Amino acid sequence: PAKPAHERTSRFLSLILRHSPDTIGLALDRNGWADVAELLDKATRHGTPLTLDTLREVVASNDKQRFAFSEDGTRIRASQGHSLRSVDLELAPAVPPAVLYHGTASRFVASIRQSGLRPGSRQHVHLSTDRETALRVGARYGVPVVLEIRAGELHAHGQVFHRSDNGVWLTGAVPVRFIGFE
Ligand code: HQG
């Protein structure tokens, strides 16, 4: 398990690299990359002291591998979860398995039955390959409910899917008829 200090740093990096880099005056490029030296400098100057060693440890030990360095190590980005519209991860379209899972909270189910799954504030609807992961995702917001998504059928209907570098499946809105409710 990650150290509490690492968990705090991971949350901070999620905020900065997915949602609001301007909080510390940082700019991401169009593919979501931040310059590592600039990130360390600006985080430190804005009250979250961060060294390269700590950053490397947080990235390596992260339970969901949320962040990735560029090959040359000079840049870093979040692998999924962005709300920033300006970021395009340029992930290749991928063919999903027949069934994927979406974890949600019981209080959202009536609304999902009405309007299907929507990306909400993020760029994509997030889907998992296994029920256990979906259960944990849903538990973040209340009593978890796992929905079965007929991803293969949806893909056959022309919907685009992507797989993030850390194994999360990403797609657009999912219409009700492709969702299996428990
Ligand atoms: C729900 C975490 C009402 C949806 C996770 C979800 C994931 C609806 C919530 C990643 C709805 C949005 C994303 C509708 C969808 N009516 N509610 N029509 N359609 N919803 O956090 O999927 O740990 O934006 O079910 O593991 O929960 O941050 O999405 O409950 O991969 O790396 O609206 O975040 O990853 O919530 O989570 P979110 P999510 P990290």
Automatic annotation (TrEMBL):
<dbReference type="GO" id="GO:0003950">
    <property type="term" value="F:NAD+ poly-ADP-ribosyltransferase activity"/>
</dbReference>
<dbReference type="GO" id="GO:0000215">
    <property type="term" value="F:tRNA 2'-phosphotransferase activity"/>
</dbReference>
<keyword id="KW-0520">NAD</keyword>
<dbReference type="GO" id="GO:0006388">
    <property type="term" value="P:tRNA splicing, via endonucleolytic cleavage and ligation"/>
</dbReference>
<comment type="similarity">
    <text>Belongs to the KptA/TPT1 family.</text>
</comment>
<comment type="function">
    <text>Removes the 2'-phosphate from RNA via an intermediate in which the phosphate is ADP-ribosylated by NAD followed by a presumed transesterification to release the RNA and generate ADP-ribose 1''-2''-cyclic phosphate (APPR&gt;P). May function as an ADP-ribosylase.</text>
</comment>
<dbReference type="InterPro" id="IPR042081">
    <property type="entry name" value="RNA_2'-PTrans_C"/>
</dbReference>
<dbReference type="InterPro" id="IPR002745">
    <property type="entry name" value="Ptrans_KptA/Tpt1"/>
</dbReference>
<dbReference type="Pfam" id="PF01885">
    <property type="entry name" value="PTS_2-RNA"/>
</dbReference>
<keyword id="KW-0808">Transferase</keyword>
<dbReference type="InterPro" id="IPR022928">
    <property type="entry name" value="RNA_2'-PTrans_KptA"/>
</dbReference>
<dbReference type="InterPro" id="IPR042080">
    <property type="entry name" value="RNA_2'-PTrans_N"/>
</dbReference>
<protein>
    <recommendedName>
        <fullName>Probable RNA 2'-phosphotransferase</fullName>
        <ecNumber>2.7.1.-</ecNumber>
    </recommendedName>
</protein>
